[in-house]
Amino acid sequence: MFVEAIERVSEFTRPTHIITRLYHQADILTGAATLFFINEEGYAITCRHVAEIIVNSGAVQQNYNQFMAEYRKVMRDPQQKQLLKRLEQKYGLALGSVITQKMDFINCFDNLTHIDVTYHTKYDLALLRFRTTGKAHYGRPAEFIADGQIPKQGKSLCRLGYPFAEFTNYRYNSEIDDIEWDGTMPKVTPAFPIDGILTRYIGDETGQAFALEMSTPGLVGQSGGPLFDTKGVVYGMQQSTRHLHLGFDMINRDVWVGTHRAKVSNHPFLHVGVCISADIIKDFLRQQNVKFYQAK
After folding, report:
1. Which of 91, 127, 133, 82 shows the shortest CA–CA distance to 110?
2. What is the separation, in whole angstroms, between the first and last Cα of the chain?
3. What is the largest CA-CA distance in the chain?
């Protein structure tokens, strides 16, 4: 049903790879997110919670660098342990605190120089403007559902994103005490589609419908990806997943597990996707005077 639409949407949808280093942790954590381009001028949209990593990464790194600069001065001090605790409190560091995050925008541009970020003032939505001196690697931009068209309950729609962070092109550089991309080509997980039907509209505190609820969950890493119909027309953007308690709870139920009896408890939830609506996105783009396209 969505074969041709996925091919169309794949032209303007791209993955973002994320690597994270935590305080007092040796492992490098990997993550992924999604964005999609809405015109030929380097403008794309994604979730605010994704864009915040771009905006905050410099400050997070600077905080850790300043901490380490002070810590090196007291490493051989007899009161080193007490001084370290004071520095950790000063810089807000504890076990598991994020000290470095870096992003790689896959197959977007050559020679990326800067990214301008504009947040929506209310919703989990952000506008990105990629500044580059190189070639763009995305095809035709997105087309949104036309103004005044309201999808009905039960309509089949699909989301596309990159939920599985399977890349390995990163390393820890002990010489500079930092994590970095190793320069090799990343292993890009193929885009992952997931379809469902429109179940409900979600309203804010004023009653305005700002999001579409889908019968299937949006997967971690699909945040910022498009929601589209069988023609590839965009109806919204995947933002989060709701977990609805079904009430079919079982407490210490006797069941057979293989050849043994066992006590089992189960608290089932229905996981449904939440997608920022195209109307909210288009209004935001108009406020920013950014060109976009609508399906005829």
Report:
1. 133
2. 21
3. 73
